[in-house]
Amino acid sequence: MIAIHDIPYEIAKKRNHPHLEAIHYAGWVSLFTLHVIWPFLWIWATLWDSEKGWNRQDHQQLLKLQDMSNQIPQLEHQHQQLEQEVSALRQQVAQLSAQLAQLNVKQEA
After folding, report:
1. Which of 7, 60, 69, 94 gets the most CB atoms within 10 Å of its CB?
2. How many angstroms from the chain centroid is the CA of residue 92?
3. How many CB atoms lie under 10 A from the CB of residue 103?
C-alpha cells in the first residue's frame, strides 16, 4: 500500500513534469487520505509529456512555428535577390524607353 503512493511521482519524474514536487507531496498526502486522491495524481502525472507539453496540438503548432522561423533567413535572401532582379529590370526598361524615344525623334526628323 505504501509503494503505491509514489507511482504518480515516478511517472512525473520520467516525463520531466513541471509539477514534480507537488505531485510527490500530494502522493504522501494521499497516504493519509487512504489513497482517495491517488487517481487524480496519476492523471495529473500522465497528462504532461516532456516533448509534447500538455497537449499534442500545442506541440504541433509550436513545431510549425519553429519551421516557419527557420525559413525566415532563406526567405529574406530570396527577397533580396528578387529586389535586385526587379531593379535590373527597371534599368533595362528605362534604357529601352530611352532608345525608343530616340528612334521616335529620328523618325520624326
Report:
1. 7
2. 43
3. 10
